[in-house]
Amino acid sequence: MKCSQGESFSKGELQRFGNIELNPSAGVLNYGQGLFEGLKAYRKHDGNILLFHPEENAFRLRTGAERMCMPSPSVDQLVEAVKLTVLANERWIPPLGKGSLYIRLLLMGSGAVLGLAPAPEYTFLIYVSPVGNYFKEGSAPINLIVETEMHRATPGGTGGVKTVGNYAAVLKAQSAAKEKGFSDVLYLDSVHKRYLEEVSSCNVFVVKGNVISTPAIKGTILPGITRKSIIDVARSQGFQVQERFVTVDELLDADEVFCTGTAGVIFRVGSITYLGRRVTYGSDGVGVVLLMMILFQLMMIFFQLMVVMIQMMIQK
Ligand code: PMP
To answer: How far apart are the CA of 201 and the centre of ligand 1, in A?
Structure first.
């Protein structure tokens, strides 16, 4: 779909995956005026396709577009475009339990702009790819390192939206962590350097007794769609969930730690390394994290309480 400033987006069309043409002075290439979203389509055991809250991704993209000075397709246009793209690529959705179809939405300033300014023209596109596990650990616990020098976001910046530049900011710390054998990086706030923010592409939760704490949404972390659902599930199961400032000391003292994100829903954290000290988390008993994982799977796959199902069975 395309749109010039002040216009609404034109109707899009399905195209075979391939390169796209961009002017060298496109806003996205020069000034980072780009946003994306990621969600997944799963195949259900009866053959139907499940999409996890596509309208939430649409809302988040629109919030991000406002922050990035970009126009955006409407929520209805976005959800419709996702459904059409998924249906057109239905054959690429792996069988249940063997992965999912990752759906990437991309909104960018595609018009030419030389002096710093919002681009005069925008392009919205969607591409898809079958995916398996996000981390090489698969469903085994991941190992994180707390980054103390580099920050992902600063107050008043763009950390709360899914703009492409946020991900460029984490590449260096993330590559260094992976080289050292860690799964990913956990970032601290850039002001006090002691409050948890999030991992490069997921939100973090700390469990102590019956209380589950997670950093509050305050503009420097992404309001994860999985985060919100997990909070709802945990509260419905009688856990106390606190959204607040969570210190690195609380992290090190936790019973369990987990992360949430579209990439793998819930990731158990096996260890955290902070300033050379490595803390491991209990594997005895069922644990809150395993309970959450099971509940979430059950709700998603069997009860369909939390998903929008594409009702259209593919005509064969
Ligand atoms: N934080 C960041 C920085 C992310 O990129 C993601 C992945 N979108 C998340 C958190 C988790 O968000 P969600 O649950 O919507 O995938």
So the answer is: 5
